[in-house]
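cron nightly-structures :: item 1 of 1
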Amino acid sequence: MAQTLLNLAQGVTGTLPTSNYVGGKVLQIQSSTISSQVVITSTSPTDVGLSATITPSNTSNNIMIIATATVTCNNNSDGSGAIGWSITDSSNNVIIGSAGDSNPFDLGHHNTSNWYSINGVQTKTIVHSPNTNSAFTYKMRGENGTATNATFNYNGSFGATSSIILMEIEG
C-alpha cells in the first residue's frame, strides 16, 4: 500500500495510508452560459433556455452546482416588483431556489411612490447527489412574481450573462 508523508502541527510527522483519504477530488467540470435576453411574463416557473448536463463516473459522487443569474425586474404601477429563479432537474424538480413556491421572490422591491427597477446578479451554490452514473441535466427556470417585466440577461449586448457550472466531486 502506498504511503504519503503527512506534516502535522508543531513539526510532528507521520505517514497515513492513501486508503484513508476520503474523496473530495474534482473529477470533471461542465458549464453552460447564456447571454441572450429572456423576458419572463409567467408567474409559473418557465425555462430560460439555460441547461448543463454531466455524467457522473460513479453513483456515489456528488455534483457541486454553482448557478448565477443576472436579472432585472421593473415595478408595477403600485411600485411592487419581484422575480424568482431556481435550478431544477430535467423533470422540473427543484434542486435549489424558490421558483414554484407560493412566494418565489428572490429579488424584489416595493415602493408605492416611485417607479424604478432592481438589477442584480445572484449566485446559488449547492452540492447535489443525483445517485446515478447516467447523464443528468440541470436547468435554470425563472418566474415573474409581481413585476411588469422580469428579465434574465437584460440588454445582453452589454455582457449580461447567466451560467451553470457543474463539478463532479469524488465521493
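cron nightly-structures :: done
The radius of gyration is 21 Å.
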